[in-house]
TrEMBL record:
This is TsaA-like domain-containing protein. SUPFAM superfamilies: YaeB-like. The keyword S-adenosyl-L-methionine applies. Belongs to the tRNA methyltransferase O family. Transmembrane segments: none annotated. Pfam families: TrmO_N. Residues 8-129 form the TsaA-like domain. PANTHER family: TRNA (ADENINE(37)-N6)-METHYLTRANSFERASE. Keywords: S-adenosyl-L-methionine.
């Protein structure tokens, strides 16, 4: 199967002075809305220095550039020599200024094009066995509240779960920033009770305003 070449547009560039940061091009700055200082993100870079026909044809390398290491396929290494010289980094945002994201030190050269930035999510980027598999999660019903993402489990086939206790039935995925956990049905009810207690402890004036706002909501 033949494909037309892909077009990749830089959204910014790595800069090393005065501190390591990503210089976001003005036309893409709006895409950073929602990022916060302290967030972990995935950077997708284009190693333009390795973007030559000869280097793209290199399919095996000595890992870490050490000839004592056996030749290994580039897909099993972090080598910059690849059919498509894409590099991935996981970094923390330390400071955000207009047009700049200050990040951890990385070994990419000054001027390296940045082709994408994605928020780090443990469930996707550090996969592990979780009680609720991806195919069982009702992704489209997920709700973002601040930095908390609530993803319920699909309600299909619940009639087959009559023998499962509330302590055993995992009801939802809870993401807080990059961290992921699951709550059983019993834990979900406990969380609801705890949140109700917090709500009831709010000043009366705040609760009155919240009720009024809720009454106006469609």
């Amino acid at each position: 199967m033949n494909f037309e070449p892909f077009k990749i547009t830089p959204v910014g560039f790595v800069r090393k002075e005065p501190e390591t940061h990503i210089e976001i091009l003005p036309e893409f700055w709006e895409a950073t809305e929602g990022l916060r200082e302290g967030d972990w993100v995935k950077l997708v870079l284009w190693f333009h220095g390795s973007d030559t026909p000869a280097r793209r044809r290199i399919l095996k390398v000595h890992p870490y550039g050490n000839p004592k290491n056996p030749l290994t396929g580039v897909f099993a290494t972090r080598s910059p020599y690849r059919p498509n010289p894409i590099a991935l980094y996981t970094v923390r945002i330390h400071r955000i200024e207009e047009g700049r994201l200050y990040i951890d030190e990385i070994d990419a050269l000054d001027g390296t094009p940045v082709v994408d930035i994605k928020i780090f999510v443990e469930r996707y980027d550090c996969p592990k066995e979780v009680p609720i598999e991806e195919r069982e999660a009702e992704i489209r019903a997920g709700r973002m509240i601040g930095e908390v993402n609530i993803i319920p489990r699909k309600a299909e086939h619940l009639d087959e779960l009559e023998e499962v206790s509330p302590e055993e039935y995992d009801a939802l995925i809870l993401e807080i920033g990059p961290k992921t956990t699951t709550l059983t049905a019993k834990e979900l009810v406990e969380l609801i009770d705890a949140l109700n207690e917090v709500y009831e402890s709010l000043p009366v004036e705040i609760r009155d305003k919240l009720r009024t706002r809720g009454a106006r909501s469609p």
